[in-house]
Amino acid sequence: MLARLIGFAAAITMLFGVANVYAADLNDTQIAHIAYTAGQIDIAAAELALEKSSNEDVRRFAENMVSDHTAVNEQALALVEKLGVTPEDNETSQTLSKQADLKRAELAGLSGPAFDRAYVENEVAYHQAVNDALANLLIPAASNEELKALLSTGLEIFTGHQQHAENVLEMIQ
User: Fold this and answer.
1) Which domains does the chain have, with CATH numbers?
2) Exposed/middle/buried for residue 1 (C-beta within 10 Å: 0-12, 13-18, 19+)
């Protein structure tokens, strides 16, 4: 399990690392799309956990993910509407979605404690990678101050998610 966690974290980090090479080329509409996509990925993973898990700690965590990521994504949509822009799909968003689909298919094949562990390990790795990308790529590359502020708020929330996931992982080990 630890090897899978490290492998997934490395893949996501590598993805954002590759994107970092092109950070100067990212515009705010692409950054908004990446951030929104990352939230949608976590919502989908949490919904799968709510379907498959009977562990109360895992379920509470998943409910929190759905609630918080939905709220942040709604704020993002309100901001792009206010600014009169449309989030722009891009290679990073597409790659994130493809990797998430593969991970979701892997998780869907698990059940019971094996699912719970794999889901929460994935959440730890995913939040580590997304938080790193927010802090070191997306926030610095954003030019609109309102977008930077929203991303910074998201980073604070998602740092809490990472800590929460780490705590749940300790409880279910």
Assistant:
1) 2-172 (1.20.1260.10)
2) exposed
